[in-house]
Structures are given as C-alpha cells and as structure tokens.
Specification:
The chain is mostly helical. The protein folds into two domains: 110 residues, RNA polymerase sigma factor, region 2, helix turn helix motif (Rna Polymerase Sigma Factor, Chain: A); 69 residues, Orthogonal Bundle (Arc Repressor Mutant, subunit A). The chain contains nine helices and no strands. The longest helix has 22 residues.
C-alpha cells in the first residue's frame, strides 16, 4: 500500500533539503541526486515563463550552475529547498528575458495543461487529504484488535501467518478479523 500523499510530499521535501545541504558541503553525488529529483519540476517552471523548450533548458542549466555555487547560501529556516530552487530558476528565466537575448513569445492559454509536472493539482491534494482523514476516522471506528491487524498487515507488509504468531491466534481467526475489518472499512468509506 502506498503512503498517504502528505507523507510522500514531506519525505520528498526533506530529501531535497538534505541533498541541498550536502551539496553545499561539496557533495557531488547529493547534487546529482538533487538534480535528478527536481529538474523536471524546475523545467516546468522555466517552460511556464519561456515556452521555447531549448531556451528553457538553457536557463535550467544556468540555474543549476548557480545552485551549485550558491548552495552554501541556502537557509532552511527561511524557505523550503524547493522554494529556494524555484526562486533561483525563476530569477534566471526573468534575467534571460530581460537581457534581450530572448525574443519573448506569449504562450497559448492551453500551455499549462500540456505541461504536467507530475505533481498532483491542489484540488487532487485537497481530495487526497480529505480521503485520508475519512480513512483515519473509519479506522478509529474499528475494534482496536482489527485496526491493529489491518495497520500491521498493510503498512508493514506482514503475512497472516506472521500476524498469527505475533498475536498467538489461529491463522484462520486472523484472516477472519482482517476480512471483517476491511468490510467495515469499505462500508464506512462508502457512506
């Protein structure tokens, strides 16, 4: 089972921050990992400002050179890593447009829909949070033993046999408790 969206987003944000802080110390592997994990989102930022892909890629390259040289200036107390990275990319794109080396073209209004950065939309995030809250409420409504068995089975990937050993119960009983708990969850979630 996948982790809730807010856990994934928080983990991604903390990984970006850790990589940026290590890059500030000259860690090239961390910088490469930072590039791999953020470049597509940062390219989308460039493409929103300057729809010419070649020019946007050029700006992104300049931005990453600046990020490597300025990584030691990043302060996690002032901004998240992604916010700091986006600011550098945005400023590089604006500088390029202002320098006159870029013939500014207006993007069509459809462009943002064509540029999927892979991140969920705000509406999708809000819906996921709402669904996660409903799931949490429904989980709390379960009998504690069923709730614990379901959590252990799904979050730890524990088999029925392992759960039976941990609880000192027959495997058939464990299967039955989990099945009944899942049926209760489904009924609660469908209300």
């Amino acid at each position: 089972m996948t982790s809730p969206p807010e856990d994934s987003a928080a983990r991604t944000a903390s990984e970006a921050q850790a990589r940026l802080l290590r890059a500030a110390l000259g860690d090239r592997a961390a910088f490469e990992a930072l590039y791999r994990s953020t470049s597509s989102a940062l390219l989308a930022v460039c493409l929103r400002l300057m729809p010419d892909r070649a020019e946007a890629e050029d700006v992104l390259q300049d931005a990453f050179v600046a990020i490597w040289h300025k990584a030691d200036q990043y302060d996690p107390q002032k901004a998240s890593a992604m916010t700091w990275l986006i600011a550098i990319v945005r400023n590089k794109a604006i500088d390029r447009m202002r320098s006159g080396g870029y013939a500014f073209k207006r993007a069509s209004i459809e462009l943002p829909e064509e540029l999927d950065d892979g991140e969920p939309t705000p509406a999708a995030r809000a819906e996921a949070v709402s669904e996660a809250e409903l799931l949490q409420t429904c989980m709390q409504a379960l009998e504690p033993r069923r709730r614990q068995l379901i959590r252990t089975a799904f979050y730890e990937g524990t088999t029925y046999e392992e759960l039976a050993q941990r609880t000192g119960s027959p495997v058939g009983s464990v299967k039955s408790w989990i099945r009944r708990g899942l049926l209760q969850l489904r009924a609660c979630l469908e209300q």
